Amino acid sequence: MEKGFGPVFVYLNSAPSSKNSIRILWNDAKKQMLKEVKNWPYNFTQSEDFPSSHQRGSVLGQLLIHDRYINESFFPASSAYVGLAAPGEVGSWQRENKGYQFWNQADEEGRFIIKNVRPGNYSFYAWVPGIVGDYKYEIDITITPGSNIKLDNLTYEPPRNGPTLWEIGIPDRTAAEFYVPDPYPTLLNNLYTQNHTENFRQYGLWARYGERHPHNDLVYNVAINNYHDDWFYAQVTRNTGNETYVGTTWQILFELHNVTNPGNYTLQLALASANNAELQVRINNKSDEQPHFSSKLIGGDNAIARHGIHGLYWLFSVEIPSSLLKEGINTVYLTQARGGETFQGVMYDYIRLEAPSSHTDSQVVI
Fold first, then answer.
1. H-helix or E-strand containing 27?
2. How far apart are CA 260 and CA 118, in angstroms?
């Protein structure tokens, strides 16, 4: 299989020497970049492996969402990320790197157009900021030269088994909304301190978990705590001395005034990153030898070490029988069980507990 890279555009600019010269150069380069984006794909190339614009096709349509616990009616997938990639399973585009991918972002009404797509066979994928899970259109799409394919209104029904009892975070595939500590002064990268508000672009942040929780791991009460301030951005290992790193167990405390019985509750666990990790879930008994759920060994994106805020996305829907819950205070134990290295861990994207579908209580707003 052949795959082309390029053409490559190099832009050299200049500006009078002054205290603002770097900013002037940078802004000018960004303007030029936007011009080149509009001009792509270039038609001057002579390679058979680089189709010109008239040899490509496009796909357009509208994506809607149906989640009756958010809205009884269908509503638009506002700002959805939509793309064409090699045919595969739901979410497989994340790990696919041999074929070509073409992506765009939908407008506020969920309408989209993906232009200048190379001829070939593709699956249509999407994900929506604020909505858990991945969407895939059930029919593969064949692009031919000059084709303009209009899809019917597409409907995404995200994973959902019942009404929300509580939630932690924002389903946006990053851990940026959680507590990110200040960087170490000795490791500070000043490149990211000017006109930037994101602490996560700094080295060594993971080590501050042990400083913030020196003796006991994180405990989060959904009725009291705020995830912006109290949920550490990454569940990392703990250094117990002599460079010995062990897994950690976080707790989520929540109160149930009544338990729907019989019935299954659902814990939606969305991860923004995982690296050589194993996430285990226990309910109300930290000492259970066998966890109620285990992800097994997952991840290898190393976003923690690279001071990023997300890697590959993972979603686990964990059913919890009502027999494991009780009226009053309950505890979910989240154990990252793998140890031995500094960078083993996970970043959470979003956590939600759903009541059984027969549950009649209204959504709890924390």
1. helix 21-39
2. 52
Determine, yes or no, domain membership for 366. Answer: no
Pick from 156, 178, 213: which residue ends a domain? 156
Please, are residues 151 and 84 in contact by the beta-carbon 8 Å criterion? no
> ω before 41 within 30° of 0 (cis)?
yes
CA 271, distance to chain mean position in Å, is 7
Residue with tokens 């959504």: 363
Asked which of 109, 126, 156 is the last residue of a domain, the reply is: 156
Q: Are both 173 and 190 inside the same structural domain?
A: yes
Q: What radius of gyration do the chain's Cα atoms show? A: 24
Q: Note down the domain range covering 4.
A: 1-50
298 & 220 share domain: yes
What confidence tens digit (pLDDT) does each residue in 220-243 have? 999 999 999 999 999 999 988 888
In DSSP terms, 111 is beta-bridged to 62
Q: What is the pLDDT of residues 39-86, one digit of tens each?
A: 999 888 888 889 999 999 999 999 999 999 999 999 999 999 999 999
* Residue 325, domain member (yes or no): yes
Q: Are residues 195 and 343 in the same domain?
A: yes
Q: How many domains does the chain have?
A: 3
Instruction: Name the 3-class secondary structure at 235.
Output: strand
| Residues near 362 by beta carbon (within 8 Å), at least 6 away in sequence | 163
| Other Cβ atoms within 10 Å of 330 Cβ, number | 19
What is the residue type of 225?
Answer: N
